[in-house]
User: What shape does this take?
Amino acid sequence: MATNGSLRAVAAYDRDGIEVVFERDDVVQKETAIDRIHEELVLQEIGREYLENLFRVGRWHCTMHRFEQAICLHAANGEYSGVFVSVDTGADVNLERVADICHESGA
Assistant: This one.
């Protein structure tokens, strides 16, 4: 996946914890932030069935949040497991392809 230097962070998680696979030097998070992000990802997974029933367009694959400095993508891969990817806002990155790669990885 080519990100032209705009990749900020990549992490894989399950119910028990989160493992940061890559984190760019200028965006390193404190451990407490990583723990809170992990909690949020698990909470999103709890709401999966609700979202699927609400929208009725198939199985939920990912959620994206866009902030001033980053676009954060959460892709679910199984029960309470998935991948979190963050890229710079405004980056020329195909986010749909990133979501596909994350979902297919089963990381």
Summary: Residues 7-105 form a domain with the Beta-Lactamase fold (CATH 3.30.450.30). The chain has one domain: 7-105. Strands lie at 7-14, 17-23, 62-66, 70-78, 81-88.
